[in-house]
């Protein structure tokens, strides 16, 4: 929906929201007209017929207002339906325009009351219906034109004065309604422009925040984000007493891979490994990040030693299954990874940095013992490392 359509939809919603106000105005105005006519000796039948027409038009508008509110709630703004609703105000305009039939048998005072209240109804509609111009015109024109036309047709001086006076007021009312409508549209356009600007700035800020915590190459979380998550999970595990497992992963002989195949191929290799890591994480609480260079880290809250070790082995096999050629590797002819795994009781560890250092130590041992393997230790029960190795 473009800006003009948004303004039109907002104007129409406002019209529907205040739909009861013009109805109340018509009820009050019609009672005053009827009372003045009866007091002046008008025929009850004529007054009753006119009141019936007014209240019939009000009933139609109330029904359509209720229907429009339901439609706006269920389907939103629809231009054709809005136009039908706006044109329904012509029924009220016609009813007020027919008040002219009360004039022939009325006293000058009663005629003045009819003319004055009819014009007052049109004047009041400027602020209520002018917000949606088709609705205002649908009411104002049929309310005023019969009085003008019949006054001109009568031809005498008094009626010509009434016609001129009514024409002047109608033109004035239309002019005010147009200006009011234009002013409200500009106000809403400015508001929507400001809202769009704030939204764009908020989205840009959120995007920058995400970028600040994301690795540009792999799309994974970066070191900064990893440190924040590790601190949070470490504190949570310390409070709950639940196990916290960490996995530290390094791509074997990655410098040699870059030297042999070039940095572009090296970037693609890291991207494939990053996707493989992310595909192995099925819990919302599990977290993976690019630690730096060819190193990746995983945080596994409430994961016991067996589960963490099993995941590390699965990752090692899945990376090997990628079969990324690596002729410069001293382990295998395709890319392999080494992993260090720890499962710890955070209450026994001084800080997240110490926990990370312990995981790094297991990774270092995996590399020292020949790479392409998992070294895992469960610090909750023992400091004896478990070693697993497999062919790629």
Sum up the structure in keywords:
single chain, 392 residues, alpha+beta, 2 domains, 13 helices, 10% strand
Mean pLDDT: 88
Major sheet: 6 strands, mixed
Output the structural class. Answer: alpha+beta
Q: How does the overall form come out from the CA principal axes?
A: rod-shaped
Number of strands: 6
Approximate strand percentage = 5-15%
Give Rg in angstroms.
40 Å
Arrangement of strands in the largest sheet = 2-3-1-4-5-6
Give the helix tally.
Answer: 13
Low-confidence stretches: none
Query: What number of structural domains do the residues give?
Result: 2
Question: What is the share of helical residues?
Answer: 55-70%
Distance between the termini: 55 Å
Q: From N to C, what is the helix and strand string?
A: HHHHHHHHHEHHEEHEHEE
How does this model look, in words?
α2 runs antiparallel to α3 (44-75). The chain starts with a helix and ends with a strand. Helix content is 67%, strand content 10%. It has helices spanning 3-17, 20-39, 44-75, 79-87, 89-97, 108-129, 133-154, 157-212, 223-240, 254-261, 263-279, 305-321, 352-368, and strands at 244-251, 287-292, 295-301, 337-344, 373-378, 386-389. The chain has two domains: 3-199; 223-389, Alpha-Beta Plaits, CATH 3.30.70.270. The mean pLDDT is 88. The chain is α+β, with helices and mostly antiparallel strands and 392 residues long. It has a six-stranded mixed β-sheet with strand order 2-3-1-4-5-6, sandwiched between helices.
């Amino acid at each position: 929906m473009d800006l003009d359509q948004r303004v039109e939809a907002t104007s129409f919603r406002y019209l529907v929201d205040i739909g009861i106000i013009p109805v109340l105005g018509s009820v009050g105005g019609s009672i005053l007209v009827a009372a003045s006519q009866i007091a002046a000796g008008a025929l009850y039948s004529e007054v009753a017929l006119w009141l019936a027409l007014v209240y019939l038009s009000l009933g139609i508008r109330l029904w359509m207002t209720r229907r429009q509110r339901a439609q706006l709630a269920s389907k939103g703004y629809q231009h054709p339906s809005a136009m039908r609703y706006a044109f329904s105000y012509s029924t009220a305009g016609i009813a007020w325009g027919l008040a002219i039939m009360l004039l022939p048998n009325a006293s000058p005072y009663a005629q003045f009351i009819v003319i004055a209240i009819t014009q007052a109804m049109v004047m009041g509609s400027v602020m209520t219906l002018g917000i949606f111009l088709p609705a205002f015109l649908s009411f104002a024109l049929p309310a005023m034109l019969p009085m003008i036309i019949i006054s001109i047709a009568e031809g005498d001086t008094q009626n010509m004065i009434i016609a001129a006076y009514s024409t002047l007021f109608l033109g004035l009312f239309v002019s005010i309604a147009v200006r009011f409508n234009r002013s409200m549209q500009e106000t809403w356009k400015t508001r929507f422009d400001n809202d769009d600007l704030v939204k764009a700035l908020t989205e840009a800020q959120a995007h920058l925040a995400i970028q600040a915590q994301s690795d540009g190459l792999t799309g994974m979380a970066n070191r900064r984000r990893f440190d924040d998550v590790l601190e949070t999970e470490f504190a949570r595990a310390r409070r709950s007493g639940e196990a916290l497992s960490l996995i530290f992963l390094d791509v074997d002989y990655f410098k040699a891979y870059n030297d042999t195949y070039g940095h572009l191929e090296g970037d693609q290799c890291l991207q494939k490994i990053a996707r493989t890591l992310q595909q192995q994480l099925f819990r919302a609480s599990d977290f993976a990040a690019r630690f730096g260079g060819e190193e990746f880290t995983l945080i596994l809250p409430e994961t016991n030693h067996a589960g963490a070790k099993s995941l590390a082995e699965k990752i090692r096999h899945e990376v090997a299954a990628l079969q990324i050629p690596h002729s410069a590797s001293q382990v295998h002819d395709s890319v392999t990874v080494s992993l260090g795994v720890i499962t710890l009781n955070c209450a026994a560890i001084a800080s997240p940095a110490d926990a990370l250092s312990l995981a790094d130590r297991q990774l270092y041992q995996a590399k020292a013992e020949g790479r392409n393997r998992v070294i895992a230790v469960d610090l909750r029960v023992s400091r004896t490392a478990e070693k697993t190795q497999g062919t790629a």
